[in-house]
């Protein structure tokens, strides 16, 4: 489409995901007999850099596999596991480490309950549960949302507060 400001023409498209039904928009330009995509809306989600690398990578993979709910649930569970390990909860099963983090007031009761739900959801496809091996799109989305919230609570918020304290001290 020609631009009124004299800039390079832009082309727009909308794409609907066959798995989740969400719509993504794209903006691009014509270059050498093809369209080059310059921007995608909404932008792809990125795990926050303040989350430790191992957990961040699992969380990023959870974002990227939401179209495959079983995979997203497993990655969300792995992200929660890695986050607790990054907080030095390394011994025992994930079940025991969640309960220990609750006992140590690292997690609230609600967070621990949700963490156990994510743990169980990630176990179903990983262990091919005979009665209910697959998670739903909604269950996967909730698991990923929890992993993201836990990362924000344990790492992102803490780092942001420390940066604020450091900035105030140097001001």
What does this structure look like?
With 171 residues, this protein is α+β, with helices and mostly antiparallel strands. The chain has helices at 53-64, 69-86, 94-103, 109-126, 137-170, and strands at residues 11-16, 23-31, 34-41. Strands 1-2-3 form a three-stranded antiparallel beta sheet, with no helix packed on it. α1 (53-64) packs antiparallel against α2 (69-86) and α2 packs across α4 (109-126). The termini are far apart.
In short:
This protein is an alpha+beta fold and 171 residues long. It contains five helices and three strands; from the N terminus they run E-E-E-H-H-H-H-H. It has a three-stranded antiparallel sheet, with no helix packed on it.
Mean pLDDT: 91
- Which residue ranges are poorly predicted, with pLDDT under 50 across at least 5 consecutive positions? none
Rg of Cα set: 21 Å
Q: What is the 3D form?
A: flat
Tell me the major beta sheet. 3 strands, antiparallel
Secondary structure: elements and pairs:
Elements lengths: L10 E6 L6 E9 L2 E8 L11 H12 L4 H18 L7 H10 L5 H18 L10 H34 L1
Antiparallel strand pairs: 1-2, 2-3
Main attributes of the structure:
single chain; 171 residues; alpha+beta; 5 helices; 54% helix; 13% strand
């Amino acid at each position: 489409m020609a631009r009124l400001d004299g800039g390079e023409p832009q082309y727009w498209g909308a794409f609907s995901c066959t798995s989740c039904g969400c719509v993504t928009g794209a903006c691009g330009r014509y270059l050498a007999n093809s369209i080059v995509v310059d921007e995608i809306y909404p932008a792809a989600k990125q795990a926050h850099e303040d989350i430790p690398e191992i957990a961040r990578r699992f969380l990023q993979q959870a974002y990227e596999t939401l179209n495959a709910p079983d995979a997203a649930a497993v990655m969300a569970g792995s992200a929660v596991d890695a986050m607790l390990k990054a907080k030095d909860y390394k011994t025992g099963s994930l079940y025991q480490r969640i309960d220990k983090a609750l006992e140590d007031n690292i997690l609230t009761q609600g967070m621990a309950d949700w963490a156990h739900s994510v743990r169980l959801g990630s176990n179903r496809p990983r262990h091919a549960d005979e009665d209910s091996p697959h998670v739903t799109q909604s269950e996967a989305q909730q698991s990923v949302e929890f992993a993201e919230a836990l990362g924000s609570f344990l790492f992102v918020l803490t780092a942001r507060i420390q940066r604020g304290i450091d900035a105030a001290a140097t001001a």
